[in-house]
Amino acid sequence: MGQEARCTVRFRDAVSEGNALLETDELVYRADDGLRLKIPFRQMRKVETVRGALRIEFPDGTAVFELGPKAETWAHRILNPKSLLDKLGVKPGMKISVLDLDDDTFLAELRGRTLDISLANPQPASDAIFVAVENEEDLERLKSLKAVIKPDGAVWAVFRKGRKDFNENDVLRGGLAAGLVDVKVVRFSDTHTASKFVIRKSERPTAGQ
C-alpha cells in the first residue's frame, strides 16, 4: 500500500496544491487545478531533499514536492526500493510452488532465494503458491490450492494487466468464491499484476489442532 500526502508542488513555471501518492515503483501526483504527474522510479535521474522538499529530476523536467518531515522518508523509499520478492513476502528457505507461470526473470530471482521450489505440482504445505490465471476456469483452481498452502500461507493469482474481459475484479470474485480473502495487490511485472489471497484467520487451525 502506498503512502499519501497533501502537498504543494513546483513543476516548470507552475505551483499547485494536490495529493501525492508514493507507490512501490512510482510517484503519482494529482493537483486540484488539473496537473497530473506519474513518475516511475526507473525514470528518476536525480532524487534529493532540501529543507523538507523532495526534488526529483526526470525526463519531463524537475518537480519539487513540499512534503516537510516526510521528504526524507520518501526519498529513502525511492532510492532503496524493495525487490519484487520482498514485496511478495518470499523469505529464504520458503517452500514455493509456481504453476503455469512463464516468467524467467521471476524464476531466476526465486531460485536465488530458495531452492525448495516446485514447478509441476503444488507442494503440500507450501508457504506460497504463484499461479497464472487467464480466465474463469483458471480461477476455479484456487479452491483446491487453498487446501495445499500452510494455514498462514498465501496463494498469489498472477494475471495480465489491461484486459477488459478479465480483470482484477474477476480475480477478486474468484478468490472469494474459493473461500479466500484478498489482502494485497503487487505490480508483478510490466505486463502482470499479482493479487494475494489467504485463508481467513477464523478458519485457520489453532495451536494443538
Note the main sheet: 7 strands, antiparallel
Please name the fourth-level CATH homologous superfamily of the largest domain. Vaccinia Virus protein VP39
Q: Taking all residues together, what is the mean pLDDT?
A: 94
Helix and strand element order: EEEEEEEHHEHEEHHEHEE
Rg over alpha carbons: 20 Å
Poorly predicted tracts of residues: none
Query: What is the spatial order of strands in the main beta sheet?
Result: 4-3-2-1-7-6-5
Amount of helix: 10-25%
Sheet-strand content, in percent, reads 35-45%
Q: What's the CATH class of the largest domain, please?
A: Alpha Beta
CATH architecture of the largest domain: 3-Layer(aba) Sandwich
What is the terminal-to-terminal distance?
Answer: 34 Å
Number of spatially distinct domains: 2
Provide a count of the helices: 6
Number of strands: 13
Topology:
Blueprint (H helix, E strand, L loop, with lengths): L2 E9 L2 E9 L3 E6 L4 E5 L5 E5 L2 E6 L2 E6 L3 H10 L4 H5 L7 E4 L4 H8 L5 E2 L7 E7 L3 H4 L2 H5 L2 E12 L7 H10 L2 E8 L4 E8 L10
Parallel strand pairs: 8-9, 8-10, 10-11
Antiparallel strand pairs: 1-2, 1-7, 2-3, 3-4, 5-6, 6-7, 11-13, 12-13
Q: Can you give a write-up of this model?
A:
The two termini are 34 Å apart. Helix 3 links the parallel strand 8 (96-99) and strand 9. The chain contains six helices and 13 strands. The protein has two domains: 3-79, PH-domain like, CATH 2.30.29; 84-203, Rossmann fold (3-Layer(aba) Sandwich), CATH 3.40.50.150. It is α+β, with helices and mostly antiparallel strands and 209 residues long. The protein is 20% helix and 42% strand. A seven-stranded antiparallel beta sheet has the order 4-3-2-1-7-6-5, with helices on one face. The chain has a six-stranded mixed beta sheet with strand order 9-8-10-11-13-12. The longest helix has 10 residues, at 70-79.
